[in-house]
Here is the input.
Amino acid sequence: MRWTEDLTDFAYFSGLLPGAHPAFFGALSRACDELAIPWALLGGTRDIWCRDYMPIQTGRHDFTVYPYDPSYLKNRRGSKTRTAFADVEIERGVWRAEAAFKRTPVVLDGGNVVLTPRHLLLADSVLTENERAPRRGELGDGAGVPVRRRKAAGLSPKARAELLSALEEGFGAPAILLPRLPGDPFGHADGMVRFFKDRQLFVNEWMGAWGSFNHDLRTRIIAGERLLEEDGYELLGAPYVDRPLCLYLNYLRVGNKLVVPTFGHRLDDQALGFFREHFGRENVRGVDSREVAQHGGVLNCLSWTISVSRPVFGPPIL
Here is the structure.
């Protein structure tokens, strides 16, 4: 069984977030406190989007570390904000002796990884982020230094198969690739699909936005959802705002507690009602996230959620 987000019990945020967005962070931390979500701050970070560079928990003691070298940071500003996991300081003393870190050579960021008990779900942007599939032994250092890649127009069928094999080896589950979200410059899956429970997934309810999607994109989205259904998943349609990066699915989840981003939109109440129906009214809070959404993400992007009561951690030796 994969270590899915319903098993998490602790949230971390970048130590830069309170200073960068004090009013927003005040509302977010109050929502966490009201829901009894324990949280702490990470030191040594160079940007606020800690989901992207922190390791991904895959088992009781197991984490997968990956080269963090996304194309959207390949500019002068990106070189200053790219964070290596090895430099991150954990504020609370939860790291002890038994964590196991597995490295994958696949260039990833954490926002493009959604785990279910049976699969690894990613947006197909992972293909363009890896211009050729890594070969065995061709690893990055696990702390943000990528494998060497040559420029290519696209992956050959063989290279694509090698990439999917490397993902399965790194995460212990086969990967399903979905078409990237329209208007998302980062190509992340966590604004498209989230694990709920058992074989149920939340997906965006696209119908109100179909008019703004071209025929090819509509066809690809439908094909992606059929792939999930063919693999035995039940898809639950969550409210969707046809506005860049205003994604209700990019909520913060810790166990069965949810903090849902709101955007001053007429669908905010509908989105909160939808999630309260599935998680219970007492387990859901909303936080106005317009301030951070305009900078490229919302609540899942801003958090690193793990289980600290079940596993026993050790210092990251990469």
Q: What stands out?
A: The first strand starts at residue 10 and ends at 14. The chain has one domain: 5-306. Residues 132-152, 311-318 have pLDDT under 50 and may be disordered.
